[in-house]
Predict the structure.
Amino acid sequence: MTPYFLVFGWFLAICLVLETTGSHRSLTRTERWLLLLPLAVFSIMYAGRIGTDVESYRELFDQAEQFPLEPGFSMLMIAAKWLGLNYTSFTRVLAAVQILLLGSVVMRLRDPLFFLLFYFSSFFLNFQFNAIRNSLALLVVAAMYVRLLQPRFSTLLASTVIHYSSLITLGLQRLALSRRQWLVIALVIVASCGVSLIWLQPDLLGPQFSELFVYRGYLDQEYESKTVYPALLLKLAVVWLLYRNGGNRFYMAAYAVLVILIHAISPVLSRLSDLVLFLTALDFCLRHRLERRRLLAIGLTLTLVASSLLIPWSDCQEGGGENWCLSGPGSR
C-alpha cells in the first residue's frame, strides 16, 4: 500500500498548498503541471501491473490483429508490437498519452484545481488502469471540447475508433447544449423508464435479443449489488453543488436519474453514470469556478478520495486477487 499512500499524500499536499495560496487567482501553467506530476509518475510506473482488467488487456494485446471492433485501438497495439514494444511498455506509452491529454484539458479550465481533485477522487484509478480504451477516447473528446466548445464530427471520428462509447459521450454533449433543456430532460426520463422496463422484462423485446441478455448476466456478476451506494450519493451531492454554482441542468438531471436507476435496477448503469459525471465536472470547470460552498464540495470530494483508497486496501486485505495490491503475497 505504500505507493498508494505516497501518491495520494503527494497529490493532496500540492492541492492543499495551491488551494491555500492560489484560491483567489488563476493557477499558472507550471502549477497545473505540478498538480499532474504525481498522477503521471504513478500512472507510468505502474501501468500494465495493476487493475482488475490487466490480464484481459494483456490477452487483447497479444491478439491485436483480431480486434476489429475498435480499429483505432487495434492499430495502436499493432503499431506498438511493430516497434518492438511489449505489453507493459505499450501501457506506459498509453499512460503518458492520457496524462498529456489530461494536461491539455486542465490548461484551459477556469477551475483546474477542483477538476483534478474530483478527477483523482472519482476516476483516476479506474481510468488509468481499468477502462483504458474508454478513458483514452473520453480524454480525446475532452481535449477537443475545451477548444471547440461543442461536439464536432472530427471529434466523433477521432474518438469512436478508439472506443464506441464516444457515440454516447457526444450525444450527451449535444443534448446538454440544447436550448430546450426541459424537453431533453423529459426525454431522458422517458428513455430511462423504457430502459428500466426492458431490463426488468426482457421478454418484451422478443427472443431475437436473448444473446444481449446473456451478456447482461455476465455484467450482473461483475458488478456487486448493494442496497445503498454511499459514494454515488456523495457524488450526487457534489453534482448538486456544481449545479447551484451555475452548472448544466441537463447533466445534473441525467446523473440524478442514473443514481436512482442504479439503486432501483442495476449497478451496471454505473458505467454510464461515470461518463455523465465526468462530463458534468468538465463542463462546469471549463465555464465556471466553484465559489459558493467550495469548502463543502472539497470536503465531500476528499471523502471520495478516501473511498477510492479503499479499493487497493480491500484487495490487499483479501490477498490481491483483483490485481490492485502492491504489497504482500499478491504484489506484482
Observations:
- The chain has a mean pLDDT of 83.
- The longest helix spans residues 294-317.
- The CA atoms of residues 225 and 267 lie 6 Å apart.
